[in-house]
Amino acid sequence: MGGSTGPPAGTGMIRFRPGLVVAVTARRPGATELVVEVEGERAPALAYDGLTGPVSPGDRVLLNTSAVSLGLGTGGVHLVMANPARTVQDLHGPGHIMKLRYTPLQVRVLAVEEPAHPGSAALAAFEGLAGMPVVLCGVHSQVAPAAAGVQAGAGRPVRVAYVMTDSAALPLAFSRLVPALLAAGLVATTITAGQAFGGDFEAVNLYSALGCARAVAGAEVAVVGPGPGGVGTGTRLGFSGIEVAGGVDAVSRLDGIPVVAPRVSLADLRPRHRGISHHTLTCLRLAYAPAVLALPVLDGAGTDELLAQVRAAGLEGRHGVEVHDGRPALERLAAAGIPLESMGRGPGEDPAYFLAAGAAGVAAAGRLRRAGQTPGG
After folding, report:
1. What is the residue-wise DSSP string for 121-184?
2. Predicted local distance difference test score (pLDDT) of residue 1
3. For 117, which DSSP code?
């Protein structure tokens, strides 16, 4: 007999465990880091204030322990599902768009597309990005050097909007990086698109998020990328960063300039990620519209090897390839005290990775100078 036998037994199950909050270790906008006692052991946990309400030592909470029990690296913490001790609150005020839709944690937001939002009229009048550069990142750790590259390359303060997509972590509050970028003035505002939530602006999809960045938030440059915790499977198409391909086309359709921040590494031991990652090459093959591919200046023959990869992949004629110095971006981040890490490696262990994202920011800044844009212009 043919046909599917269905998913394996247990697929989709969540591992719930009760826990006791022992201590609060840190707070940032929208998130509280905790130590909890669960199954006789103490472990780190995270609560999202907008979903659970305030959490304090002594509260008995319900935890999702699935990822930790599977030994998954991202986050490495239990997640608070509910805090029965919190004060019950009813919904008040405007906003009728639900994110995390039809899950037990669905949350109501006031999206920028809704008539009740103060920016809805400006978004309704939006007709296009008018040549605004948009840096497209496939990994969250690229966002910082990309934004810093914009600021360093422009030589003046630039209003940068970070558009967080929904291909990885959905709560913006999960990121420790974003508050640091905001505090340092490298990013001016945040927009959460699709099912992602918690930004200064909420948008239903990437297209309206880009419109919001330009017409409502007054951004000169947008940096688009996922939150922490992307997925990779080792296959050519099975990775969350594949959204960069669609992002290139979205930016182009809206009359913007798509600038791709390539994933580059000279330290990764996996052949598919050596040099320009197969993730970036796949996205550039799938994108219909042409993009700017920014490559970094590397020591020795490093840059030439990256250019050879682009030619071997047949991409040189399809996309505009540029080489830029990403070091000013890393210097800007170091001066701001913002640490960088990807796959357990920092700029000292894998400089090419961070220089590549910085180069993309510098390339975007160059488009501002060529267009003669000024702040607020």
Report:
1. HHHHT----TT-EEEE-SSGGGHHHHHHHHHHHHTS---EEEEE-SSS--BGGG-SHHHHHHHT
2. 43
3. S
Do you know the residue count of the chain? 377
Architecture in CATH for domain 120-371: 3-Layer(aba) Sandwich (3.40)
Nearest alpha-carbon partner for 190 in 259, 112, 264, 138: 112
The rounded percent of the chain whose pLDDT value lies above 90 is: 75
In the chain, domain spans: 16-82, 120-371
CATH of the domain spanning 16-82: 2.40.50.220
For 377, how many CA atoms within 13 A lie in the half-sphere containing its CB? 10
Rounded Cα distance between 83 and 36, Å, is 13
Assign 376 a pLDDT band (cuts: 50, 70, 90): very low
What value does the mean pLDDT of the chain take? 90
The DSSP line for 177-238 is HHHHHHHTTS--EEEEETT-B-SSEEESSHHHHHHIIIIIS--SEEEEE--S---B-SSSS-
72's CB contacts (< 8 A; 6+ apart) are none
14 burial level (CB within 10 Å; 0-12, 13-18, 19+): exposed
Mean pLDDT, residues 38-67 taken together: 92
State the pLDDT confidence band at 330, using cuts at 50, 70 and 90. Answer: very high
Q: How many CB atoms lie within 10 A of CB 138?
A: 30
Q: Which two tokens stand for residue 11?
A: 């697929």
CA 227 – CA 140 distance, rounded (Å):
5
User: Does residue 57 contact residue 11 with C-beta atoms inside 8 Å?
Assistant: no
CA separation (Å) from 117 to 59, 101, 152, 167, 201? 35, 20, 33, 25, 10
The reported pTM is 0.92
How confident is the model over 25-41, as a mean pLDDT?
A: 95
Cα gap 16→67, rounded to integer Å: 11
Query: What pLDDT score does 269 carry?
Result: 60
pLDDT average, residue stretch 191-220: 98
